Amino acid sequence: MIKLSAVIITYNEVVHIEPLIKNLDFVDEIVVVDSYSTDGTFEKLQEYSTIKLFQKKFESFPNQKNFAISKAKNNWILFIDADERIKENGKKEIINKIQNTDKVAFWARFIYYFGTKKIRFSGFQSTKTIRVFNKTKCYYEKSTLVHEVLIYQGKTGTLKHKVDHYSYRDYNHYKSKILHYSNLKALNHYHKNKSMGFLLMTVKVFYRFVNHYFIRLGVLDGKVGLQISYLNALGIYYRYRKLKSLKKEKT
Questions:
Q1: Which helix (H) or strand (E) holds 210?
Q2: What is the maximum span of the chain, computed from C-alpha positions, in angstroms?
Q3: What is the pLDDT of residue 178?
Q4: What is the mean pLDDT of the chain?
Q5: Rounded to whole angstroms, what are the CA distances from 201 to 128, 195, 197?
Q6: E strands along the chain, which residues?
Q7: How many angstroms separate the CA atoms of 198 and 5, rounded?
Q8: First to last CA, the chain
Q9: Average pLDDT value for residue range 160-177
């Protein structure tokens, strides 16, 4: 029987550790790489003697993920975020998929939550990411600092059962994530010598809000949809401000 390793990278995820480990009762190995958490995440993980636990300074998402994958002993990987949960039918599907397949990777779709509220629209309804893959045929591309891309050699499939993603605890938690990703994107643009003028930034901010709130139906998610749309637009502005600051420092 083909075995499966669950691989996780963490930073300040102590609230998710116990339910996460409980949810991974169907895998053969759990590998966690922590980026020197300050909220007790690492100490909580140390309570589980069966986990392969490492600490590594965060440099970029692809760097951290490739390092974590290298520590897994099995070829088939389930890469899961600490705030994601797989239902029982999803667990069975994953195990069945990897036993006899000509695919090298499988895309997962998600059900997102903002606190306890399910997000039905706001741009999240079509999100999908590769979560299960054969590491001998796949790796994370190194040059992108955020929204990293998995490079794969071969055919892919899509999992039928969606993964629950408890990604945003509240408005401030989502805002902190948006600002973190905005800074990483600005650094990525800076390293690639890209620029963003004030006019382009203004157009992008306006379009991002309209896209999430109207085109991608955030209006149907009520107050949460408005908050998500606003913060996504705000992220563009913060990216512009960070990029401008980096270029100013250079001169």
A1: helix 198-210
A2: 59
A3: 93
A4: 94
A5: 27, 10, 6
A6: 4-10, 29-34, 52-55, 76-79, 84-85, 103-114, 117-119, 128-134, 138-140, 150-152, 155-158, 163-168
A7: 46
A8: 59
A9: 93
What Å distances lie between residue 215 and 70, 121, 227, 229, CA to CA?
41, 10, 15, 11
Number of CB atoms found within 10 A of residue 240's CB: 22
Of the candidates 29, 28, 39, the one whose C-alpha atom is nearest the C-alpha of residue 10 is 39
Enter the tokens of residue 114.
Answer: 């903002």
Inform me whether the pLDDT recorded for 143 exceeds 90: no
pLDDT digits 0-9 by tens, 41-81: 999 999 999 999 999 999 989 999 999 999 999 999 999 99
Tokens coding 208 = 């991002």
Q: Quick: pLDDT tens for 5-52.
A: 999 999 999 999 999 999 999 999 999 999 999 999 999 999 999 999
Residue 245 CA to residue 96 CA, distance in Å, equals: 50
Distance CA 218, CA 212 (A): 6
**Is the confidence at residue 146, as pLDDT, over 80?**
no
